[in-house]
Design brief:
Family: Belongs to the EPSP synthase family.
Number of strands: 24
Domain Enolpyruvate transferase: 15-431
GO molecular function: 3-phosphoshikimate 1-carboxyvinyltransferase activity
Radius of gyration: 22 Å
Bound molecules: shikimate-3-phosphate, phosphoenolpyruvate
Number of domains: 2
Strand content: 15-25%
Helix content: 25-40%
CATH superfamily of the largest domain: Enolpyruvate transferase domain
Main location: cytoplasm
Shape: globular
Low-confidence stretches: none
Distance between the termini: 35 Å
Oligomer: single chain
Number of helices: 12
Largest sheet: 5 strands, mixed
CATH class of the largest domain: Alpha Beta
GO biological process, one term: chorismate biosynthetic process
């Protein structure tokens, strides 16, 4: 277990340069773990992410009777699939603050049936799950709230699913649709299952990850745009045998932004042109801000071209990586506006409020709306102690304020409670230190 201090003092850095090998994608890791557990056959997973979010998924699967082994100290795991039949019918599952664990598991366990309780850290109990529970209960699942209606903890009992046609709202989290899609083959084996999205769907590229991985496990989905998804009858998950987890594209954003702000080149290895993660499109935002991006099949590199250009854009498709843009905006030549990020309010913390408070400590002017943030860079970035709100991305993106950009000097930054990075990237600060340089070229 990595040891973290109570706070971390990061010194100003002259420039950013180097290469970082990325940890595995959280979104892909937790989807593959669940699909492998539900599949027929054994899955050999390479480069699984080692983090709090994958740990809670692995522990939950173990409690549910799924057998898996880690190969030595490596990130290779062997999962013995259950074929969708769990041997354990009663379990109490701790889900930490992992949306990618609790939401898909809720749907899968409701479809399989049994007596299960799911709960998490206190913030998890403030993160909505009502749209998913409503969608499942409407087709005969039996899910109750044991705390506040609409939020975990949940108690799932055996229901009587008649799930030919489900409807789900998509405006709060795309993870509800992901959860229903992944559970659909378990719901009605001899009938087509149709899932309709009611109203707007946010964070769309995450649905592409879901559909792509379902396909790798032998289940195809017929779709009508983002409106309706049909899972033809008679499909079961079948292990692909061996599967590799790409590097995490959201984790890549911090290093690529560092290269764009402070010289570069900074290269990340593990994601590239072939990625199935929507967050690789973060580089389009960096390009619009004036950075030069180069890409290979499995790497991306960013370097600066002088002062960053301010940006005004819709970030609904990359909500996680958008936080990195909010901090990069400190180095821009004018105010930047991040639009359509209302989902930030129901994530690890209220990210719009947290981001506004902490950016102001560094001297930025910040205007906060229900679903947007406007950041006016300060003349000079101030030293500050940044609170992280138990949000890994707050801790990671504020490290960028130490960098000397072409237009602005970074400053000393204290990161309070840095251990929250363990949610997705336990070694983040070591990786950041390896590219934040104080020597001259
Ligand atoms: O499906 C996924 O893997 C994720 C979907 C996104 O959530 P929302 O759909 O709630 O925006 C994203 O923020 C989260 O980190 C991971
Ligand atoms: C929103 C996030 O996580 P979760 O998967 O718990 O929703 C995140 O990692 O930024």
């Amino acid at each position: 277990m990595k040891h973290y201090p109570h706070h971390l003092d990061l010194q100003p850095a002259m420039h950013a340069q180097g290469t970082v090998r990325l940890p595995g994608s959280k979104s892909i890791s937790n989807r593959i773990l669940l699909l492998a557990a539900l599949a027929q056959g054994t899955t050999d997973i390479h480069d699984l992410l080692a983090s709090d979010d994958t740990h809670v998924m692995l522990m939950a699967l173990q409690k549910l009777g799924i057998q898996w082994e880690q190969i030595g100290e490596t990130q290779q795991y062997i999962v013995h699939g259950s074929g969708g039949m769990l041997s354990v019918h009663q379990a109490d599952l701790f889900m930490g603050n992992a949306g990618t664990a609790i939401r898909p598991l809720t749907a899968a366990l409701a479809a399989i049936g049994g007596d299960y309780t799911l709960h998490g850290v206190s913030r998890m109990h403030e993160r909505p799950i009502g749209d998913l529970v409503d969608a499942l209960n409407a087709v005969g699942a039996s899910i109750e709230y044991t705390g506040q209606p609409g939020y975990p903890p949940l108690h799932i009992r055996r229901g009587h699913l008649h799930a030919q046609r489900l409807q789900v709202k998509g405006s709060v989290s795309s993870q509800f649709l992901t959860a229903l899609l992944m559970a659909a083959p378990l719901m009605a084996r001899d009938q087509v299952v149709t899932i309709e999205v009611i109203g707007e769907l946010i964070s769309k590229p995450y649905i592409e990850i879901t559909l792509n991985l379902m396909r790798r496990f032998g289940v195809t989905v017929e779709r009508d745009g983002w409106q309706s998804f049909a899972i033809p009858a008679g499909q079961n998950y079948i292990s692909p045998g061996s599967i590799h987890v790409e590097g995490d594209a959201s984790s890549a954003s911090y290093f690529l932004a560092a290269g764009a702000i402070a010289g570069g080149p900074v290269r990340v290895e593990g994601v590239g042109r072939d990625s199935i993660q929507g967050d690789v499109r973060f580089v389009e935002a960096l390009e619009r801000m004036g950075a030069t991006i180069t890409m290979g099949d499995n790497w991306i590199e960013a370097k600066s071209n002088g002062v960053l250009q301010a940006i005004d854009a819709d970030f609904n498709h990359i909500p996680d990586a958008a936080m990195t843009i909010a901090v990069a905006a400190l180095y821009a030549n004018g105010p930047s506006t991040l639009r359509n990020v209302g989902s930030w309010r129901v994530k690890e913390t209220d990210r719009i409020a947290a981001m506004a408070t902490e950016l102001r400590k560094l001297g930025a002017g910040v205007e906060e709306g229900a679903d947007y943030l406007r950041v006016t860079p300060p003349k000079q970035i101030r030293s500050a102690a940044i609170d992280t709100y138990d949000d890994h991305r707050m801790a990671m993106c504020f490290s960028l304020a130490t960098l000397n950009g072409a237009g602005r000097k970074g400053n000393a930054v204290r990161i309070n409670d840095p251990k929250c990075v363990a949610k997705t990237f336990p070694e983040y600060f070591d990786a950041f230190a390896s590219i934040a340089r104080n020597d001259l070229f």
